[in-house]
Amino acid sequence: MATWYSAIDGAAQARLRAAWKGAPIENEELLGFLVDTARLQVVEFAPEATTAEAAIAEVLLRFGLTDRLEEVLALLDLVEGEPAFNLVYAQLQQIKNLWAAGRADEQGDIGSEGFSFVPRPLDKTVRSIIRPTNAEVSGGF
Fold it and tell me: What is the pTM assigned to this prediction?
């Protein structure tokens, strides 16, 4: 079951901390901004099919297997309206990117001792999680 990350209460924050040890849990307001902004960015960049059911239906349609939708949904134990798993994972990665970008210095670098990198929110890795290219379905459909 895929559900969006949130910072709304202790349980949601514990879930986020389990997925990301460096989450700034001590600043609830900032964490809420990061989580909500990342979700908004992912949803806005995602194609129309943002629920797991819609994403699976889209893939099945591409391969002429639309008659198997109910079977696939039952096998995956999906709840109607649930976000697609790749979008939830992209949200987590985007939260980390936003946090890193917010910690950058005036030149956009993070790091010390001559080692630095420039964080790029909604970078190509996150975009490819949201909109995979050349995705293929394998397995016993």
Answer: 0.67
Number of domains in the chain: 1
> What is the CA angle 124-126-128, rounded to 5?
65
The answer to whether 56 touches 79, Cβ cutoff 8 Å, is no
Q: Are 118 and 108 in contact (CB under 8 A)?
A: yes
Number of other residues whose CB lies within 10 A of the CB of residue 46: 18
- pLDDT tens for the chain, 141 residues: list them: 689 999 999 999 999 999 999 898 888 999 999 999 999 999 888 876 566 677 778 788 888 888 888 887 777 766 666 788 889 999 999 999 888 877 656 655 555 555 555 556 688 888 888 887 765 555 544
Q: Which structure tokens are listed for 125?
A: 């890795």
Q: Is residue 116 part of a domain?
A: yes
